[in-house]
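[Structure tokenization] protein backbone as discrete codes
[Encoding] learned vocabulary of local backbone shapes
[Protein] chain in single-letter code, fold in tokens
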Amino acid sequence: MGTTLRAKLDRGEVAVGHMVSEFWTRGIAKVLEVAGFDFVLFDLEHSGASMSDLADQLAWTKATSLTSIVRIPAGMNAYVSRALDAGADGIMVPQVDSVEDVRAAIRAAKYPPLGRRGMTHVGAHDDFGQRSTGEVLANANRETILIVQIETANALAGVDSIVREPGVDIAWPGPVDLGVALAPESGGRAEIVDEAIIRVVDACRSAGRVAGLQVNDASEAVAFIRRGVRCISLNKDVGIYLDACQKAVSATREEAGAK
């Protein structure tokens, strides 16, 4: 049982997804599928969502073709197995600082012999008992997607070793946190941050891994795709909604004022 995201990346294609941070509604996964996205990234790091909220979203996502990725809170690997048992297809681990951090995440995400994830039966992860233990073990260890976020100076310095750890699928630089770590005085995406992103892309290319990135709009996405990023999260729910609302309100007022 492969996923849309892994299939596209295995074929060397670009995958485009979207982050859900604010709109934890029952229809959001279907809306994103209709819009044409490949995956949805549910954010538990910077949102008020609960595990119950997440479990509902993962159940609704299973009714679509979307691959579901969950970003856990930083330093909280206990969330890894809970998210996977609730039906997530993959995990994003923020604030990775070292190879040991990566190994700890792999231990939490993979069943033996690759890791130490505990086994339970008759849940969302095994289609409520429709698959055997052997099938679940083999499929999960092969298909579960692990994304590590490179967001600190230490992680950037050790990125070549980090991306080569067996079990890592995608390395994902975090521009905002990298900006704070590397150039706090810039207050934004300084040239040094762009260089750091490309540093991660180059490390991924050398190691045969995929580079991912959160971007604000299509033009930014295209610019980084041309530089080697193959997994793009195009803005997030509240970002796109706010932008659309502001443009609609502005256009309405301008049009009304012109009449």
